[in-house]
Amino acid sequence: MTSQTWLLLAVTGIDAVLFHALPFFSRPDIVFSVTVADTFAAGSAAATLVRRYRTAVWIGAAAAAAGLLLVQSTEIGVGLLLAQGMLGVAAWLWARGQAQPHAASPPTVRTATIEPRQTRLPGGALFALGPLLVVAAAVSFLCWNWEAIPDRMPVRWSFDGAATGWRVKSIAGVYSALGMATVIIVIMLVMAWLLVHRTRQVAITDAAAGPERRFKAVSALQLLLSAYGLAALSTAFSVAPVLTGANRMSPAIPALIAAAVIVSLGCVLILARLGQGGHRAVAPRMNADARGDATPDAAWKGGLVYFNPNDPALLVEKRLGLGWTLNLANKWSWVLVGTVVALALLLRLLR
Fold first, then answer.
1. What's the whole-model pTM score?
2. How much is the average pLDDT of 118-145?
3. Which own/partner pairs from 50-53 qualify as long-range (CB within 8 Å, at least 24 positions apart)?
4. Which of the two residues, 238 and 18, has the higher pLDDT score?
5. Which range, of 4-13, 111-120, 326-335, averages the lowest pLDDT?
6. What pLDDT does residue 50 have?
7. What's the distance, CA 6 to chain centroid?
8. Which long-range contacts (CB under 8 A, 24 or more apart) does 109-116 make?
9. Are 224 and 192 in contact (CB under 8 A)?
10. Which 3 state secondary structure label does DSSP give 328?
11. Beta 30-31 vs 34-35: how paired, if at all?
12. Average pLDDT taken over every residue of the chain
């Protein structure tokens, strides 16, 4: 088998594991994006539904793997991977349809806590500003060493000093790359601030609110650490040619990438252990006054996308996976999406 076939087989297995694990990440009273009664969620009917969903997922993975082994064509292999993903989504939508008849009635009484919310970013404000300070230091260094900046900066690096392509054509390109990194970092910092200050507090009792706050804090910390990783990488790519006097990749760059991946995976494992919304640390009886994630089922289109014009929230808990997602009925969601797309297009033009 070719290396491409092995890679596609690995992706097939990873996709299957991810689809298999999705029901595990939901709150205990949310089954396939449907808020259900505790009796259904903890009963055999829900377990059977999850088992059938996972059977469909693994049948799709087995069919895709068999096709890859028989054909061993990269183009057809990519098509098989897309078909596997579509089957996984179809299985999820089917399971959601089976769970909807068991949906719990929306509560007629709203409950809330009058205690002040704990709204401190992990590490404090100075720690949150650290990524911007790193980029500012890089810009200052480049301004001080203006004449030492190469006329062209390579898009691909090699350890022997030979560059195989060019991304930016002038000194200004160095600063535009740092500028785009700064915009992305600012978005990450804003999202972290929103997670702590502007996301809905679902839990009412102290015993349940504490784990929920920890879940938000770890989510915000993951964004802050990602901002640090982006700041370090953009700085290393921009400053390394000036420090070394050659267009060759510094050994620090692969190390930074590996460290960023390890830290991100660590945060994901912590979030998985806490459970979506921090529910795994809370006994159901301690959070009996709250149902689901306090968002209406009808606003989840296909159980995948949240669109609720009546909800002012920008970020809400995911019902498919860990973490948070955008309320696409909020205009600021489209500002964020548009900014990211514009940056991606600009990076493409600079290549």
1. 0.82
2. 87
3. 50/23, 50/95, 52/95, 53/23, 53/91, 53/92, 53/94, 53/95
4. 18
5. 111-120
6. 96
7. 26
8. 111/204, 111/289, 111/290, 112/204, 113/201, 113/204, 113/209
9. yes
10. coil
11. antiparallel
12. 83
Q: Please tell me the distance from the alpha carbon of residue 181 to that of residue 347, in angstroms, as a whole number.
A: 11
Task: Look at the block and give the residue holding tokens 């006329």.
Answer: 151
**Neighbour-count burial for 255-274, b at 16+ CB within 10 Å, e otherwise:** ebeeebeebeeebeeebeeb
* Residue 323 · residue 219 · CB < 8 Å: yes
Examine the pLDDT at 55 and tell me if it is beyond 90: yes
Q: What is the DSSP string of 19-48?
A: HHHHHHHS-TTEETTEEB-HHHHTSHHHHH
Q: What is the DSSP letter of 103?
A: B
R_g over Cα of the chain: 24
Rounded Cα distance, 262 and 258, in Å: 6
Q: For 283-312, how does the pLDDT look when each residue is reduced to its tens digit (9 = 90+)? A: 665 555 567 888 999 999 988 899 999 999
Provide φ and ψ at 201, rounded to 5°: -95, 105
